[in-house]
Amino acid sequence: MSDKTFVVKKTCPICQDETRVVKVRSRLPVLKRDEDGCVHYEDFNPYFYTVWTCEHCGFAADEKTFTTKMPDRHLKILRGELLKNKFGMDFVEERTADDAIFALKLAISYVEQVEGKFFTQAKYAHQLAWVYRDVPDEDNERKFLERAAKLYDASLAKETYPIEGLSDSGATYLIGAIYWRLDEAEKCGVYLSRLMKDDGLRSRDPRLYDKVRDMWGDVRSALRDAKK
Q: What does pTM read for this prediction?
């Protein structure tokens, strides 16, 4: 067992059985941060553990979803699916990339089944891209980055922010940063330009403003170079 994780027992919101899950310790030394929010640590990837899975019924979700009262409509749909099949999952203390990929894909499928928030779907897709980045698997990383960007955009259009501590400006920046990672400078520029036109951003969120300004400079340079 890693000294960076520990095992706790939680009640599954679907089958109500007690299941073991792995939590990541809060203080980890950071090596670097990517522009789209992915944090790199030495010899450890916490994104392998962002989704918990029930070893009895196979439900998968992040800690917030797992431990917060679920809407009755969602419970009815998921219980109808999971309690009927109850495929169960082997408990693994130290996940491989394949374990993490499977857990995140399960979580995405359950959010889709209940027609859950676009933001939650985007977050899972984004974290899945980060796992593929670690593998590395550039094709699948790109696939899920593109998916995350579209879902964040849908979330901005239809959901009320802030969500899980992220402002609408932060989500707009994330979309731009994802397109920058995808080498799509024009699409990135569309989202960053919205933020550059926001006169209140600098006073409201100076750290975000600095990140937007720095990336905006890089984007403009890239677009100028592309025209030459």
A: 0.94
Per-residue pLDDT tens digits for 156-205: 999 999 999 999 999 999 999 999 999 999 999 999 999 999 999 999 99
| CB atoms closer than 10 angstroms to residue 27 | 5
